[in-house]
Every structure is written in C-alpha cells, then in structure tokens.
Design brief:
The chain is an alpha+beta fold. It contains 8 helices and 11 strands.
C-alpha cells in the first residue's frame, strides 16, 4: 500500500490486466472511491481511456483526501470496474493518507516526538528506544498513549503553600481522556503532565524491547522449565495492561477505587 500526504492530489495507475496479470483490452472503465469503513466518498463514473495504452491513471482530487480533525491516518480504496468483451473485472486499489505530523497532543500522544527525544536523554535503560527507528518509536508512543488512557487516573492540586494536596483530588476516566483536547491538557498540573509523559516514554521503550514475562503471564503460563533452569510466573498478579515500570512512574496518580452499582 502506498502512502500519500493528506490533503494532496493522488494519482492511481490502473493496469489493463486480469486477475492473473494477463493483458486485456478494455471496453469501459469506471471508478468509485471508498473510505476505510467501506463508505462511498465519490462515484467518478466513466473514466476516459486509451485501450492501447495498457493502463489508465485515475486522479483523485485533494478534497477527497482530507483527514478528519481526530485522524492522523486514513485509508482510501479506489474500486475500478474494467469492462471487457468477456465480462467485468473489479480492481480494488487501496492507498493511505498520513498527516504531516503523525503525533498530535491528546489525539494519540501526551508529547511531541521531539519532546520525547529530548526527555529520553535523562532516562536509563532505554535500549528498546535506542535500537528502534523513527517509525517504530512513533508507533510505540501511540500505543503507549492508548494504554495509559485506558487507566482511570487522579491528581492533586497545590495549596497556597505550594504543597500537593491530594485531599482535593480530580479524577480522569477513560471517557474523560477521549474528550480531552490539547488545550484541556495544558490546564492540568505540570507535575501530572510530566508524569504522564515520562510514563508514556517508559511504556514505549518497554513495547520496543519487549516484556517476555508479561507476554507469558497474559498467555496463561504459570511456570516454565528449560533444561535445568525453571521459572515460576506469578499468576495472582493483577494485569492492568501496563508494564510495572510504567505503573511505578504513575505511582500516586492511578485511581484504584472501583464502585459496584445496581443495574
């Protein structure tokens, strides 16, 4: 699949060939554009073509390649119908659109990629991050953001003496995270935002280097023996979907209180 910048003109070349790659002589060509949810965006109708050219280029205007405000990537599928004397051949030609900046505050990250790069310099045991390329790091930051925002969190505010007052706590649920904008995020206490960014970077690093024990625990493995070595994995530990180091970075901010109500 090819990637194109969002809000750009995309030219899709359609070869005159059947499903086996054999050349054909078309009698008609039409095209319809769909999004990634299989919703029709635009029916281009009949496409002018030269049967002897071997292919035709369908131009998709930029207006159909715009991203929604909450999207950093999107898929388009151009379905081309090629008519022949032997019947109709349908070709599905997907392509992806990508925003200029894949990481957007409170869309899929707590921090920009550049901020993460600088913060990493003050952290230890970041071997996963160091060994990864830029695309892998960005993907890990996005997944880390998703995992952290699944957790209900809390934070205290500072009193008149500039001391944290955890008696005056504010809670953030999963639904609150979904509706939070970048401007809302800026209004959160600095100490809380810094903890979130550090936790995101730690979780991203763990994702990149892999947590073998966590994977085995989630797979239901309680013990493992290799040769003369054996390992017992605690099965009674509650798995919150985050690495222990990430949980430690969020110590004091995780809201464990659960309420049971009648239906």
């Amino acid at each position: 699949m090819k990637f194109y910048p969002a809000d750009s003109i995309v030219e899709v070349e359609v070869a005159f060939s059947d499903l086996n790659g054999q050349p054909i002589t078309p009698t008609s060509v039409s095209a319809v554009l769909f999004d990634g949810e299989d919703n029709e965006i635009e029916n281009f109708g009949s496409i002018p073509f030269d049967p002897a050219a071997g292919s035709v280029t369908v131009v998709v205007p930029r207006i159909y390649n715009e991203l929604d405000s909450n999207e950093t990537r999107a898929v388009r599928v151009l379905r081309v119908s090629i008519g022949t004397v032997g019947g109709e051949i349908i070709r599905s030609l997907p392509y992806a659109l990508e925003a200029e900046q894949r990481l957007e505050i409170m869309v899929n990250t707590f921090q920009t990629y550049e901020t993460a790069q600088v913060a990493m310099k003050d952290m230890v045991n970041m071997s996963g991050w160091t060994a990864a390329n830029d695309d892998q790091r960005r993907a890990a930051l996005v997944e880390a953001f998703r995992r952290i925002t699944m957790m209900p969190l809390k934070y205290g505010v500072r009193d008149t003496h500039d001391k944290l007052n955890f008696r005056e706590e504010h809670y953030i649920t999963r639904e609150d995270w979904i509706g939070m904008s970048a401007e809302d995020f800026k209004k959160l206490p600095d100490h809380f935002r810094q903890a979130l960014r550090r936790a995101q970077l730690i979780e991203a690093n763990e994702l990149l280097q892999g947590d073998a024990v966590a994977r085995k625990r989630r797979a239901g493995i309680v013990s493992e023996t290799i040769g003369e070595s054996s390992m017992t994995i605690r099965a009674d530990r509650v798995d919150y979907g985050l690495n222990p180091q990430t949980m430690a970075a969020l110590a004091g901010y995780i809201h464990f209180n659960m309420r049971i109500t009648r239906a």
